[in-house]
């Protein structure tokens, strides 16, 4: 498919209708994570958001993006395999939706999906307790086992339970998607 002016205006209209503030799709580097993060902070601040709102959205975006980058590095994925899709959009009632997705090994995705479902069932007090417990645990470097403190922190900053999905790909891998409402 080639992008034409007609396609571009349709894409712009879609982004506007969905209230998408920032969207990225492609290989993600540490520098790019920082640049998008700076643009995100500037944009949210310009919308008169409180400092806490800005930091919550920024922190969740950084955590999701770094998790994707770290996972791809640990797994030894090629540049094309380490692509990420990141979308930040305005959501209902003055909230922001922070969404990110990437290709994962199916078994890693299943473990991650289960962990997110467990966290989604927790209330704020349970999340605080889990966070404190996780702080005392040694950090794991095993692929698929690093979903600890960062995910709990995302859940704590979210105004609603996180949502996740795992879509099988023809390669035997899967595309993992995570959504947090801040």
The CATH superfamily label reads Histidine kinase-like ATPase, C-terminal domain
Runs in which pLDDT lies below 50 for 5 or more consecutive residues are: none
CATH class: Alpha Beta
What structural class do the secondary elements suggest?
Answer: alpha+beta
Q: Strand-residue fraction?
A: 15-25%
* C-alpha Rg (nearest Å): 17 Å
Count of distinct strands: 5
Q: What's the architecture, going by CATH?
A: 2-Layer Sandwich
Total of helices: 6
Query: End-to-end span in angstroms?
Result: 35 Å
- The residue fraction in helices comes out at 40-55%
Descriptive notes:
- The protein is α+β, with helices and mostly antiparallel strands and 182 residues long.
- The protein has one domain: Heat Shock Protein 90 (2-Layer Sandwich), CATH 3.30.565.
- It is 51% helix and 23% strand.
- A five-stranded antiparallel sheet has the order 1-2-3-5-4.
- Helix 2 packs antiparallel against helix 3, helix 3 runs antiparallel to helix 6 and helix 5 runs antiparallel to helix 6.
- The longest helix has 25 residues.
- It starts with a helix and ends with a strand.
- The model has no long low-confidence stretch (mean pLDDT 91).
Summed up, what is this model?
With 182 residues, this protein is α+β, with helices and mostly antiparallel strands. The chain is built from 6 helices and 5 strands; from the N terminus they run αβααββαααββ.
Strand and helix layout:
Blueprint: H1 5-18, E1 20-27, H2 30-46, H3 51-75, E2 83-90, E3 96-105, H4 106-120, H5 124-135, H6 149-157, E4 163-168, E5 173-181
Antiparallel strand pairs: 1-2, 2-3, 3-5, 4-5
């Amino acid at each position: 498919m080639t992008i034409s002016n007609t396609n571009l205006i349709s894409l712009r209209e879609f982004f506007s209708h969905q209230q998408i503030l920032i969207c990225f799709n492609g290989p993600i580097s540490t520098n790019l994570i920082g640049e998008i993060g700076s643009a995100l902070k500037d944009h949210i601040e310009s919308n008169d958001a409180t400092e806490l709102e800005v930091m919550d959205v920024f922190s969740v975006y950084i955590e999701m993006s770094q998790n994707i980058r770290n996972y791809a590095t640990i797994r030894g994925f090629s540049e094309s395999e380490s692509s990420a899709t990141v979308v930040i959009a305005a959501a209902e009632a003055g909230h922001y939706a922070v969404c990110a997705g990437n290709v994962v090994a199916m078994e890693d995705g299943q473990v991650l999906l289960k962990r997110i479902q467990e966290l989604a069932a927790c209330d704020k007090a349970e999340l605080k307790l889990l966070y404190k417990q996780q702080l005392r645990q040694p950090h794991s470097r095993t692929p698929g086992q690093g979903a600890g403190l960062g995910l709990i922190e995302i859940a704590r900053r979210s105004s609603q339970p996180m949502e996740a999905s795992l879509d099988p790909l023809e390669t035997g891998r899967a595309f993992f998607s995570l959504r947090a409402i801040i």
